[in-house]
Amino acid sequence: MDRQPVLEGERLLLRPLAADDWDALYGVARDPLIWQLHPANDRWREDVFRAFFADALAQGGALAVIDKSDGRIIGSSRFQAHDPAAGGSVEIGWTFLARSHWGGAFNPELKRLMLGHALHFVDRVDFRVGEHNLRSRGAMAKIGGRLSDRVDIAETVTGPARHVIYEITRESFARGPLSS
């Protein structure tokens, strides 16, 4: 599976994240309200975001999200943890968008593009969401994510953070809200 494809929709262009995207992406990420409900709610700080950005480049799978109307980077997302065994799975996560692009068609289009790509190669896509991140949990429900019984505990600078796991399978995607 190519974890850094170029994907294009009506409003968005997704392309591999590059080191020279730092200024534009941090320009979005430095808004504290983006991270308010996130387990890493200090990610707006430059030193914290530098580590996040470096990890995105090192891990591969990171995509810049570009608004085609003006060519600006408005966020990023990642494909992580690709496991080809038993039909295969991959995680979509570490997604954030500028607040100017919340609540409309942008997140659904972003996820439709990424899911459409991933589900050509794997049977299931997982999404790890902070247990108390109600905004992201609501977004998962809108795109057809099913809350699984799996959980993950991640260590953060403020202590352990519990994440719930949502999933979208090839079959549920085909009959879900993002299928058209």
Characterise the protein shown here.
There is one protein chain. The chain is α+β, with helices and mostly antiparallel strands and 180 residues long. The protein has helices at residues 22-29, 46-59, 106-118, 134-142, 170-175, and strands at 7-8, 12-16, 62-67, 72-83, 89-97, 124-130, 146-156, 159-169. It has an 8-stranded mixed sheet with strand order 1-2-3-4-5-6-8-7, sandwiched between helices. The radius of gyration is 15 Å and the shape is globular. 32% of the residues are buried.
Provide a concise account of the structure shown.
The protein has 180 residues and is α+β, with helices and mostly antiparallel strands.
How is the secondary structure organized here?
Elements: E1 7-8, E2 12-16, H1 22-29, H2 46-59, E3 62-67, E4 72-83, E5 89-97, H3 106-118, E6 124-130, H4 134-142, E7 146-156, E8 159-169, H5 170-175
Parallel strand pairs: 5-6
Antiparallel strand pairs: 1-2, 2-3, 3-4, 4-5, 6-8, 7-8
SSE sequence, one letter per element: EEHHEEEHEHEEH
* Uncertain segments: none
Largest sheet: 8 strands, mixed
Form type: globular
Q: What percent of residues are in strands?
A: 35-45%
Mean pLDDT: 94
- How large is the count of helical segments? 5
Structural class: alpha+beta
* DSSP summary, beta strand count: 8
Give helix % range: 25-40%
Radius of gyration: 15 Å
Order of the strands making up the biggest sheet: 1-2-3-4-5-6-8-7
Distance between the termini: 23 Å
